[in-house]
Write a structure and sequence with these properties.
Oligomer: single chain
Bound molecules: 2-acetamido-2-deoxy-beta-D-glucopyranose
CATH architecture: Sandwich
GO molecular function, one term: isomerase activity
CATH class: Mainly Beta
Organism: Lentinus tigrinus ALCF2SS1-6
Largest sheet: 8 strands, antiparallel
Keywords: Endoplasmic reticulum, Isomerase, Membrane, Signal, Transmembrane, Transmembrane helix
Helix content: 25-40%
Enzyme class: isomerase
Distance between the termini: 39 Å
Subcellular location: Endoplasmic reticulum membrane
Length: about 220
């Protein structure tokens, strides 16, 4: 009887997950190709100048996307440090909702780590510098330069390196809350940087609520 109940519960949970997986697309606002073109245009206009690239991208997004459809955070001074998968950098959250996020992530120092195992598709548009990746059994490194995009399909994992100074426009789509434990776990197991944790949660929650109020999940 107990096993029957557990089995029924598993079937039920599986059904809910597969339905959620099928319907998530309807809330997507951003398009990977559009963001890639925008990142390329920004790199072309301001090569190697992250301080000019970021306002270029944000003003494009605030012009092209109606504030009635999607909430964009225009404050590009709002950076938080982030440790995940052994890598460290900082991020500026441009958009955060339940099915998508768009951030600038990077560091002028370089860093290296595990991409994390995610339930979302990830598009890493390099703005400045290079990102390197290792995807065994392929033993040659992958090199992504400014203007290129590194697409990490969901469920796929690699070792990556932000080689020396590197910044990227990162777009993820899928059920984002499932990614948060990877992004935040290091606070509890390693950095104990609760001040950064507080700001990360505060900004993420604020942007999610701004989107939910527009009906954008
Ligand atoms: C925004 O970027 C896209 C892609 O590069 C471009 O087609 C569009 O004209 C830009 N819009 C503005 C207002 O700059
Ligand atoms: C932008 O973010 C910075 C850093 O968090 C903050 O000091 C500043 O007040 C913010 N500006 C606005 C207009 O909200």
């Amino acid at each position: 009887m107990k096993w029957m109940k557990r089995l029924l519960f598993l079937v039920f949970a599986y059904s809910v997950c597969s339905i959620l997986d099928r319907v998530k697309d309807r809330w997507y606002v951003f398009k990977p190709d559009y963001l890639h073109e925008l990142a390329q245009a920004a790199v072309h206009e301001h090569p190697n100048d992250i301080n000019a690239i970021i306002p270029y991208i944000v003003s494009n997004l605030t012009t092209e996307y109606s504030p009635r459809v999607v909430a964009i955070n225009p404050n590009s001074s709002e950076w938080v440090l982030n440790n995940a998968g052994g890598a460290m950098g900082a991020m500026y959250i441009i958009h955060a909702s339940i099915t998508e996020y768009l951030i600038i992530f990077g560091t002028p120092l370089g860093t290296e780590g595990h991409t994390g195992m995610h339930t979302a598709d990830d598009y890493f548009n390099i703005l400045v510098g290079e990102q390197w990746a290792f995807d065994p059994p392929k033993l040659e490194m992958e090199v992504y330069k400014a203007g290129s995009v590194h697409h990490l399909p969901r469920g796929h994992v690699k070792q990556y390196k932000m080689h020396e100074g590197c910044f990227a426009l990162e777009y993820a789509r899928g059920w984002i809350p499932l990614m948060l434990p990877f992004g935040l776990a290091d606070v509890f197991s390693s950095t104990l940087d609760y001040w950064t944790f507080y700001h990360t949660v505060r900004i993420t929650a604020r942007e999610n609520i701004r989107n939910l109020l527009l009906g954008k999940i």
